[in-house]
Amino acid sequence: MKLSEIETPAVVVDLDIMERNLAHVAKYAQDHALRLRPHTKTHKSPIIARRQLDLGAVGLTVAKVGEAEVMMTAAPDDLLVAYPVIGHRKLERLMALAGNTRITVAVDSVVAAHQLSDAAREHRREVGVLMEVDMGLKRVGVAPKDAVAFTRSVLRLPHLRYEGVAMYPGHIKMMDETGMAAIRKLSGDVESLVDDLTAAGLKPPIVSGGSTPALYHSHHVAALNEIRPGTYVFNDRNTLELGSCAMKDCAATVLCTVVSTAQPGQIILDGGSKTFSSDRLATGADAGFGELIDAPEAIFTKLMEEHGFVDVHRCHRKFEVGEQVRVLMNHVCVVMNLHEQVYGVRNGVVEEVWKVEARGKLQ
Predict the structure, then answer these.
(1) How many structural domains is the chain composed of?
(2) Residue 153's domain is classified under what CATH number?
(3) Is the dihedral of CA 255, 338, 77, 37 positive or negative?
(4) Are residues 90 and 228 in the same domain?
Protein backbone atom coordinates (compact mmCIF):
# COMPACT_ATOMS: atom_id res chain seq x y z
CA MET A 1 0.00 0.00 0.00
CA LYS A 2 1.26 3.48 -0.86
CA LEU A 3 0.97 6.45 1.50
CA SER A 4 -1.61 8.03 -0.81
CA GLU A 5 -3.84 4.96 -0.49
CA ILE A 6 -4.31 5.19 3.29
CA GLU A 7 -7.83 6.06 4.39
CA THR A 8 -7.80 9.31 6.31
CA PRO A 9 -7.58 10.65 8.90
CA ALA A 10 -4.72 8.42 9.98
CA VAL A 11 -1.58 8.57 12.10
CA VAL A 12 1.44 7.96 9.88
CA VAL A 13 4.90 7.23 11.26
CA ASP A 14 8.10 7.58 9.27
CA LEU A 15 9.91 4.38 10.27
CA ASP A 16 13.37 5.70 9.44
CA ILE A 17 12.90 8.66 11.78
CA MET A 18 11.34 6.59 14.56
CA GLU A 19 14.12 4.01 14.41
CA ARG A 20 16.74 6.75 14.47
CA ASN A 21 15.10 8.35 17.52
CA LEU A 22 15.00 5.03 19.38
CA ALA A 23 18.63 4.26 18.59
CA HIS A 24 19.83 7.78 19.44
CA VAL A 25 18.32 7.78 22.93
CA ALA A 26 19.47 4.22 23.58
CA LYS A 27 23.03 5.25 22.75
CA TYR A 28 22.77 8.45 24.81
CA ALA A 29 21.68 6.43 27.85
CA GLN A 30 24.46 3.92 27.32
CA ASP A 31 27.13 6.59 26.82
CA HIS A 32 26.17 8.30 30.08
CA ALA A 33 25.55 5.17 32.17
CA LEU A 34 21.86 5.99 32.56
CA ARG A 35 19.24 3.30 32.94
CA LEU A 36 16.61 3.80 30.24
CA ARG A 37 13.10 2.83 31.36
CA PRO A 38 11.02 4.57 28.63
CA HIS A 39 7.45 5.65 29.22
CA THR A 40 5.03 3.90 26.87
CA LYS A 41 2.35 6.61 27.26
CA THR A 42 3.25 8.01 23.84
CA HIS A 43 3.28 5.02 21.52
CA LYS A 44 0.96 2.76 23.57
CA SER A 45 2.21 -0.21 21.56
CA PRO A 46 3.89 -3.41 22.80
CA ILE A 47 5.51 -3.71 19.36
CA ILE A 48 7.45 -0.47 19.82
CA ALA A 49 8.05 -1.27 23.49
CA ARG A 50 9.75 -4.50 22.45
CA ARG A 51 12.01 -2.54 20.11
CA GLN A 52 12.99 -0.25 22.97
CA LEU A 53 13.82 -3.25 25.12
CA ASP A 54 15.84 -4.86 22.33
CA LEU A 55 17.88 -1.66 22.09
CA GLY A 56 18.88 -1.92 25.75
CA ALA A 57 16.08 -0.42 27.83
CA VAL A 58 16.10 -2.01 31.30
CA GLY A 59 12.31 -2.05 31.46
CA LEU A 60 9.20 -0.07 30.67
CA THR A 61 7.26 2.71 32.39
CA VAL A 62 3.46 3.06 32.38
CA ALA A 63 0.96 5.28 34.16
CA LYS A 64 -2.02 2.98 34.61
CA VAL A 65 -2.53 -0.68 35.43
CA GLY A 66 -4.43 -1.13 32.17
CA GLU A 67 -1.33 0.01 30.28
CA ALA A 68 0.78 -2.38 32.34
CA GLU A 69 -1.47 -5.29 31.37
CA VAL A 70 -1.10 -4.46 27.70
CA MET A 71 2.67 -4.00 27.90
CA MET A 72 3.14 -7.44 29.38
CA THR A 73 2.94 -8.82 25.84
CA ALA A 74 6.26 -7.04 25.18
CA ALA A 75 7.76 -9.37 27.84
CA PRO A 76 9.58 -6.74 29.93
CA ASP A 77 11.76 -7.97 32.79
CA ASP A 78 10.90 -4.81 34.70
CA LEU A 79 7.78 -2.66 34.77
CA LEU A 80 7.39 0.66 36.60
CA VAL A 81 3.97 2.13 37.31
CA ALA A 82 4.93 5.78 37.69
CA TYR A 83 1.58 6.77 39.13
CA PRO A 84 -0.17 6.14 42.46
CA VAL A 85 -2.19 2.92 42.29
CA ILE A 86 -5.24 3.44 44.50
CA GLY A 87 -8.11 0.99 44.95
CA HIS A 88 -8.52 -2.71 45.68
CA ARG A 89 -9.46 -3.88 42.21
CA LYS A 90 -6.57 -2.10 40.51
CA LEU A 91 -4.15 -3.57 43.03
CA GLU A 92 -5.59 -7.04 42.48
CA ARG A 93 -4.85 -6.71 38.78
CA LEU A 94 -1.37 -5.39 39.48
CA MET A 95 -0.59 -8.32 41.77
CA ALA A 96 -1.57 -10.70 38.97
CA LEU A 97 1.17 -9.13 36.87
CA ALA A 98 3.73 -9.31 39.68
CA GLY A 99 3.94 -13.06 39.23
CA ASN A 100 5.32 -12.59 35.72
CA THR A 101 7.69 -9.64 35.95
CA ARG A 102 9.41 -7.34 38.41
CA ILE A 103 6.91 -4.64 39.42
CA THR A 104 7.77 -1.26 40.91
CA VAL A 105 5.30 1.48 41.86
CA ALA A 106 5.94 5.16 42.54
CA VAL A 107 4.21 6.33 45.74
CA ASP A 108 3.83 9.72 47.39
CA SER A 109 1.47 8.92 50.28
CA VAL A 110 1.40 6.49 53.16
CA VAL A 111 -2.18 5.63 52.15
CA ALA A 112 -1.03 4.41 48.73
CA ALA A 113 1.89 2.56 50.28
CA HIS A 114 -0.39 0.84 52.83
CA GLN A 115 -2.76 -0.32 50.11
CA LEU A 116 0.13 -1.61 48.03
CA SER A 117 1.66 -3.40 51.01
CA ASP A 118 -1.66 -5.03 51.95
CA ALA A 119 -2.20 -6.29 48.41
CA ALA A 120 1.36 -7.62 48.18
CA ARG A 121 1.00 -9.40 51.51
CA GLU A 122 -2.33 -10.94 50.52
CA HIS A 123 -0.84 -12.29 47.29
CA ARG A 124 2.52 -13.20 48.82
CA ARG A 125 4.40 -10.88 46.50
CA GLU A 126 7.18 -8.36 46.95
CA VAL A 127 6.73 -5.09 45.09
CA GLY A 128 9.31 -2.41 44.55
CA VAL A 129 8.62 1.19 45.54
CA LEU A 130 10.08 4.48 44.37
CA MET A 131 9.46 7.45 46.64
CA GLU A 132 7.96 10.19 44.45
CA VAL A 133 9.50 13.56 45.29
CA ASP A 134 8.33 16.90 43.89
CA MET A 135 11.18 18.83 42.29
CA GLY A 136 9.22 21.83 41.11
CA LEU A 137 6.26 20.74 38.97
CA LYS A 138 3.93 20.65 41.99
CA ARG A 139 1.82 17.81 40.61
CA VAL A 140 2.59 14.76 42.73
CA GLY A 141 5.42 13.95 45.10
CA VAL A 142 6.38 14.72 48.67
CA ALA A 143 8.46 17.80 49.44
CA PRO A 144 12.22 17.08 49.47
CA LYS A 145 12.41 18.09 53.14
CA ASP A 146 9.92 15.33 53.97
CA ALA A 147 11.57 12.61 51.88
CA VAL A 148 13.53 10.95 54.71
CA ALA A 149 10.56 10.74 57.09
CA PHE A 150 8.27 9.56 54.29
CA THR A 151 10.71 6.87 53.18
CA ARG A 152 11.07 5.59 56.73
CA SER A 153 7.28 5.39 57.07
CA VAL A 154 6.90 3.42 53.86
CA LEU A 155 9.72 1.03 54.61
CA ARG A 156 8.09 -0.01 57.87
CA LEU A 157 5.46 -1.74 55.75
CA PRO A 158 5.97 -5.40 54.79
CA HIS A 159 6.36 -6.80 51.28
CA LEU A 160 7.70 -3.56 49.84
CA ARG A 161 11.18 -3.40 48.32
CA TYR A 162 13.02 -0.08 48.45
CA GLU A 163 14.11 0.83 44.93
CA GLY A 164 14.90 4.53 45.39
CA VAL A 165 13.32 7.83 44.42
CA ALA A 166 11.45 9.17 41.38
CA MET A 167 10.77 12.67 40.12
CA TYR A 168 9.41 14.34 37.02
CA PRO A 169 10.93 17.74 36.21
CA GLY A 170 8.14 18.64 33.80
CA HIS A 171 8.39 22.29 34.76
CA ILE A 172 11.65 22.52 32.78
CA LYS A 173 10.67 22.92 29.15
CA MET A 174 12.57 25.41 26.99
CA MET A 175 16.29 24.67 26.92
CA ASP A 176 17.33 28.32 26.78
CA GLU A 177 19.37 30.18 29.41
CA THR A 178 16.47 29.98 31.88
CA GLY A 179 16.04 26.27 31.23
CA MET A 180 19.73 25.56 31.73
CA ALA A 181 19.64 27.48 34.99
CA ALA A 182 16.70 25.31 36.05
CA ILE A 183 18.72 22.19 35.16
CA ARG A 184 21.56 23.39 37.37
CA LYS A 185 19.14 24.04 40.23
CA LEU A 186 17.54 20.63 39.73
CA SER A 187 20.98 19.02 39.87
CA GLY A 188 21.74 20.67 43.18
CA ASP A 189 18.33 19.78 44.60
CA VAL A 190 18.63 16.13 43.57
CA GLU A 191 22.13 15.92 44.99
CA SER A 192 20.92 17.34 48.31
CA LEU A 193 18.01 14.89 48.36
CA VAL A 194 20.29 11.92 47.79
CA ASP A 195 22.76 13.19 50.40
CA ASP A 196 19.95 13.49 52.98
CA LEU A 197 18.67 9.98 52.27
CA THR A 198 22.19 8.54 52.33
CA ALA A 199 22.99 10.22 55.65
CA ALA A 200 19.84 8.61 57.05
CA GLY A 201 20.99 5.17 55.89
CA LEU A 202 18.51 5.21 52.99
CA LYS A 203 20.79 5.63 49.97
CA PRO A 204 18.54 5.23 46.91
CA PRO A 205 19.71 2.55 44.45
CA ILE A 206 17.69 4.22 41.70
CA VAL A 207 17.30 7.95 41.18
CA SER A 208 14.73 8.14 38.40
CA GLY A 209 13.66 11.18 36.43
CA GLY A 210 13.91 12.86 33.10
CA SER A 211 11.52 14.04 30.42
CA THR A 212 11.73 14.51 26.68
CA PRO A 213 12.23 18.33 26.70
CA ALA A 214 15.22 18.04 29.05
CA LEU A 215 16.23 14.57 27.87
CA TYR A 216 19.70 15.29 26.52
CA HIS A 217 20.67 17.27 29.62
CA SER A 218 19.91 14.38 31.96
CA HIS A 219 23.61 13.60 32.44
CA HIS A 220 24.05 17.09 33.91
CA VAL A 221 21.77 16.22 36.83
CA ALA A 222 23.90 14.98 39.72
CA ALA A 223 23.02 11.53 41.10
CA LEU A 224 20.39 10.83 38.42
CA ASN A 225 20.89 7.31 37.10
CA GLU A 226 17.62 6.52 35.31
CA ILE A 227 15.55 8.33 32.67
CA ARG A 228 11.94 7.75 31.60
CA PRO A 229 11.30 9.76 28.40
CA GLY A 230 8.24 8.97 26.32
CA THR A 231 7.58 11.51 23.58
CA TYR A 232 11.08 11.12 22.06
CA VAL A 233 9.99 8.07 20.08
CA PHE A 234 7.96 10.28 17.71
CA ASN A 235 8.38 13.87 18.93
CA ASP A 236 5.71 16.44 18.06
CA ARG A 237 5.17 20.13 17.50
CA ASN A 238 5.66 20.88 21.19
CA THR A 239 9.08 19.25 21.36
CA LEU A 240 9.96 21.02 18.11
CA GLU A 241 8.88 24.46 19.34
CA LEU A 242 10.63 23.94 22.68
CA GLY A 243 13.88 23.32 20.83
CA SER A 244 14.14 19.71 22.02
CA CYS A 245 14.24 18.30 18.50
CA ALA A 246 14.41 19.33 14.84
CA MET A 247 11.77 18.79 12.18
CA LYS A 248 13.86 15.87 10.89
CA ASP A 249 13.25 14.17 14.25
CA CYS A 250 9.43 14.33 14.04
CA ALA A 251 8.30 10.86 13.02
CA ALA A 252 4.52 11.05 13.45
CA THR A 253 2.03 13.14 11.53
CA VAL A 254 -1.69 12.92 10.85
CA LEU A 255 -2.58 12.36 7.21
CA CYS A 256 -5.79 14.22 6.37
CA THR A 257 -7.88 14.88 3.29
CA VAL A 258 -9.19 18.26 2.22
CA VAL A 259 -12.97 17.73 2.14
CA SER A 260 -14.14 21.29 1.47
CA THR A 261 -12.87 24.54 0.01
CA ALA A 262 -16.31 26.18 -0.09
CA GLN A 263 -15.34 29.12 2.13
CA PRO A 264 -12.83 31.58 0.63
CA GLY A 265 -9.46 31.47 2.37
CA GLN A 266 -10.35 28.32 4.29
CA ILE A 267 -10.08 24.58 3.87
CA ILE A 268 -11.76 21.88 5.93
CA LEU A 269 -9.85 18.74 6.83
CA ASP A 270 -11.46 15.41 7.71
CA GLY A 271 -9.88 15.49 11.16
CA GLY A 272 -11.32 17.45 14.08
CA SER A 273 -11.44 17.05 17.85
CA LYS A 274 -11.83 13.27 17.50
CA THR A 275 -8.56 13.17 15.56
CA PHE A 276 -6.35 15.88 17.08
CA SER A 277 -5.50 16.98 20.60
CA SER A 278 -7.02 20.28 21.69
CA ASP A 279 -3.75 21.08 23.52
CA ARG A 280 -2.11 24.33 22.59
CA LEU A 281 1.64 24.77 22.39
CA ALA A 282 3.57 24.57 25.65
CA THR A 283 5.37 27.78 24.71
CA GLY A 284 2.08 29.65 25.08
CA ALA A 285 2.10 30.76 21.46
CA ASP A 286 -1.35 30.97 19.86
CA ALA A 287 -0.40 28.94 16.80
CA GLY A 288 -3.37 26.65 16.26
CA PHE A 289 -3.80 22.92 16.65
CA GLY A 290 -1.05 21.68 14.37
CA GLU A 291 1.24 22.60 11.50
CA LEU A 292 0.64 21.63 7.89
CA ILE A 293 4.01 20.20 6.88
CA ASP A 294 3.89 21.39 3.30
CA ALA A 295 2.10 24.68 4.02
CA PRO A 296 3.53 26.20 7.23
CA GLU A 297 1.85 29.53 6.43
CA ALA A 298 -1.55 27.91 7.03
CA ILE A 299 -3.11 28.26 10.48
CA PHE A 300 -5.09 25.36 11.95
CA THR A 301 -7.59 27.58 13.72
CA LYS A 302 -10.48 25.47 14.97
CA LEU A 303 -11.65 21.95 15.80
CA MET A 304 -15.13 20.53 15.63
CA GLU A 305 -15.76 16.83 16.06
CA GLU A 306 -15.09 15.77 12.47
CA HIS A 307 -13.96 19.07 10.96
CA GLY A 308 -10.58 20.75 11.05
CA PHE A 309 -10.68 24.44 10.08
CA VAL A 310 -7.54 25.75 8.39
CA ASP A 311 -7.01 29.38 7.43
CA VAL A 312 -5.08 29.44 4.14
CA HIS A 313 -5.22 33.17 3.37
CA ARG A 314 -1.46 33.47 3.68
CA CYS A 315 -0.67 30.43 1.53
CA HIS A 316 0.79 31.00 -1.93
CA ARG A 317 -1.01 28.04 -3.43
CA LYS A 318 -4.48 26.60 -3.86
CA PHE A 319 -5.83 23.49 -2.20
CA GLU A 320 -8.12 21.06 -3.97
CA VAL A 321 -10.88 18.86 -2.58
CA GLY A 322 -9.46 15.35 -2.26
CA GLU A 323 -5.91 16.54 -1.70
CA GLN A 324 -4.02 14.90 1.17
CA VAL A 325 -2.04 16.94 3.68
CA ARG A 326 0.16 15.94 6.61
CA VAL A 327 -0.26 17.72 9.92
CA LEU A 328 2.34 17.76 12.71
CA MET A 329 0.22 17.53 15.84
CA ASN A 330 0.84 19.66 18.93
CA HIS A 331 0.71 16.73 21.37
CA VAL A 332 1.32 13.28 19.96
CA CYS A 333 0.49 11.32 23.15
CA VAL A 334 -3.15 12.40 23.10
CA VAL A 335 -3.44 11.89 19.33
CA MET A 336 -2.19 8.31 19.63
CA ASN A 337 -4.86 7.65 22.25
CA LEU A 338 -7.53 8.75 19.76
CA HIS A 339 -6.54 6.35 16.98
CA GLU A 340 -6.98 2.60 16.69
CA GLN A 341 -4.03 1.92 14.45
CA VAL A 342 -0.88 3.48 13.06
CA TYR A 343 0.72 3.16 9.66
CA GLY A 344 4.49 2.72 9.55
CA VAL A 345 5.80 4.14 6.28
CA ARG A 346 9.18 4.01 4.59
CA ASN A 347 9.89 5.82 1.33
CA GLY A 348 6.19 6.40 0.73
CA VAL A 349 5.24 2.74 1.17
CA VAL A 350 3.34 1.27 4.14
CA GLU A 351 5.56 -1.42 5.68
CA GLU A 352 3.73 -1.94 8.96
CA VAL A 353 0.33 -1.40 10.50
CA TRP A 354 0.11 -1.78 14.26
CA LYS A 355 -2.74 -1.49 16.70
CA VAL A 356 -2.59 1.14 19.43
CA GLU A 357 -3.28 -1.57 21.97
CA ALA A 358 -3.09 0.58 25.10
CA ARG A 359 -5.40 3.32 23.83
CA GLY A 360 -8.15 4.13 26.32
CA LYS A 361 -6.46 2.16 29.11
CA LEU A 362 -7.19 4.74 31.79
CA GLN A 363 -7.91 2.45 34.74
Answers:
(1) 2
(2) 3.20.20.10
(3) positive
(4) yes
**Hey, is 338 helix, strand or coil?**
helix
Is 173 a member of any domain? yes
Cis peptide before 9 (omega within 30 of 0): yes
DSSP strand E in the chain: where?
Answer: 10-14, 35-36, 60-62, 78-81, 102-107, 127-132, 160-166, 206-209, 226-227, 252-260, 266-269, 290-292, 299-303, 308-311, 324-329, 341-346, 349-355
- 188-210 per-residue burial string, b: 16 or more CB within 10 A, e: under 16: ebbeebbeebeeeebebebbbbb
Q: pTM higher than 0.85 for the full model?
A: yes
Domain identity same for 74 and 195:
yes
Q: How many CB atoms lie within 10 A of CB 139?
A: 11
Same domain, 349 and 229: no
Asked if 168 and 207 touch (Cβ cutoff 8 Å), the reply is no
216 and 284 inside one domain: no
Helix 147-155 to helix 177-199 angle (10° resolution) is: 50
263 and 314 assigned to the same domain: yes
Q: What is the pLDDT of residues 109-154, one digit of tens each?
A: 999 999 999 999 999 999 999 999 999 999 999 999 999 999 999 9
